[in-house]
Amino acid sequence: MYIEAGPGTDKQPQLKMEIEEEVVIVGAGVAGLATCLGLHRLGIRSLVLESAETLRLTGFAFGFWTNAWKALEALGVADPVRDKHQRIRGYSFITTSTITGLQVSDMKLPQVAGSTLEVRCVNRKVLLEILEKELPRDTIRYSSKLVDIQVNGPTKSLLLADGTVIKARVVIGADGVNSAVSKLLGLSKPVSSGRFAIRGFVYFEDGHGFEIKFMQFLGNGTRYGVIPADDHSIYWFCAYTPGPSSRVATDEKEMEHDPSKLKDLVLQGLGNVTDKIRQVFEKTDLNYIICTELRYRHPWELLWGKICKDNVCVIGDALHPMTPDLGQGACCALEDSVVLARCLGEALKEKHTTDERIKKGIEKFAKERRWRSFEIISLAYLVGRVQQGGGTVLNFVRGTFLGKLLLGIGMSKAGYDCGKLASS
User: Which of 81, 103, 138, 230 is 20 to 30 Å from the Cα of 183, by its Cα?
Assistant: First the structure.
């Protein structure tokens, strides 16, 4: 059967050529490239399909915690990524009310396994380029939009928009929140959290003058974050819930593709912050502002649903789309990549491996990632609700103990070690 992968598929493209590949990865984002690199380190070739003409650079930046750095170390690229991004100094979260302008907490990052958590704000473009550089030429096939997936027993035929058919023994869906591969597995579409996020990235030629700290501003259903990546670059976000309790409320569909309106809305909702903080948002170029609806997968679907089937699985946002409240989306994607490369590496290390061996390798990956994904999605959703909720009572409870408690629990998950590429 064919599984429709997107709009514009009423007419089947004219078939041009047929290719056979052992492993095909759909999507050249963080999860896709990292998995490809992990397999490459183990001597296994894979082909990455990317619908865009070049690497996708939307999203601007990630918060990378200790678990992400452990995964990057396993992939052999931690040091070049570290060299481009400064470690958050002082290890404190500064939370300030946008209503009063007063600092309500200054939370130190906890120690995990005797070590202080390593946190850096990582530029998405820099990370993807480092991963791409480590891969052999012709590993990524650009302008390769997936149209359909045909299931013929253990072999999957991937039909591309240009008419090419790729027959694959293993298919890995790293194709994001709107994953076509997750649809093949029968997973439901991610659901709306009822919240939106406006994100931006700004560069100060002469330096921004901030300490390398995560600064957070809360008030009436809106949460702002300002996170320096280095002495010149700052990533920021504004997460909000539309409606009466939000200070940033309007028609999201109308403003989603209008950066000028997005910027105005962010500035209007800032409230009582310092001029220096306000300048971060004011100086952001309109080309570096985006808005997205925050969606997530119901966590129980990861426990009871099919996250793999035979020689097909999903990773990253295709597996565990989550709200960004723990800063763990990309971190968990890197964990997925290392674990999957390890499991597939064990299955494919024999020259004439069987389909059953591949199936068991993918099932092993699913078993290892199922509960971890459930935990992080659930915690992220809960932390987001508490941090962004409005009302006098919740503002008081959050500022006194509940916010710190939930964030502390969430950060305790950030020291997770996904292990090495090759099992000992």
Answer: 138
- The DSSP code for 88 is P
Per DSSP, 151 falls in state E
Q: What ranges make up the beta strands (E) of 78-210? A: 92-97, 103-108, 111-112, 115-116, 120-123, 140-141, 146-152, 155-160, 165-173, 191-203
Q: What is the pLDDT of residue 100?
A: 61
Q: Which portions of the chain are predicted below pLDDT 70?
A: 1-15, 90-115, 219-221, 243-256, 387-408, 410, 424
Report helix angle 30-41 to 66-75, nearest 10: 40
For 304, residues 6+ apart whose C-beta sits below 8 A from its C-beta are: none
Phi, psi torsion values for 144, nearest 5 degrees: -125, 75
Residue-by-residue DSSP string for 362-418: HHHHHHHHHHHHHHHHHHHHHHHHHHH--SHHHHHHIIIIIHHHHHHHHHHGGG---
pLDDT of residue 4: 47
CA–CA separation, 340 and 358 (whole Å): 11
Query: Residue 336: which H helix or E strand, with range?
Result: helix 329-348
Beta strands, E only, 27-145: 47-49, 61-64, 92-97, 103-108, 111-112, 115-116, 120-123, 140-141
Distances (CA, A) of 299 to 116, 182, 324, 386: 29, 15, 15, 18
In whole angstroms, what is the distance from residue 274 CA to residue 290 CA? 24
The structure tokens listed for 330 are 């990309």
Q: Assign residue 114 a region: left if phi > 0, alpha if psi is -120 to 50, beta otherwise?
A: left
Per-residue confidence (pLDDT) for residue 2, from 0 to 100: 42
Q: Is 202 exposed, middle or buried (0-12, 13-18, 19+ CB in 10 A)?
A: buried
Indicate the SS3 state at residue 49. strand
Contacts of 325 (CB under 8 A, 6+ apart): 239, 380, 381, 383, 384, 387, 410
What is the Cα–Cα distance from 44 to 410, expressed in whole angstroms? 35
The strands making up 214-219's β-sheet, listed across from edge to edge, are 103-108, 92-97, 214-219, 222-228, 233-240, 191-203, 289-296
Dist CA 57 CA 125 (whole Å): 6
Helix axes 329-348, 30-41, angle to 10 degrees: 30
Phi, psi of 168, deg, nearest 5: -125, 145
pLDDT (tens digit, 9 = 90+) per residue, 315-326? 999 999 999 988
- What does the pLDDT look like over 7-33, one tens digit per residue? 545 555 555 789 999 999 999 999 999
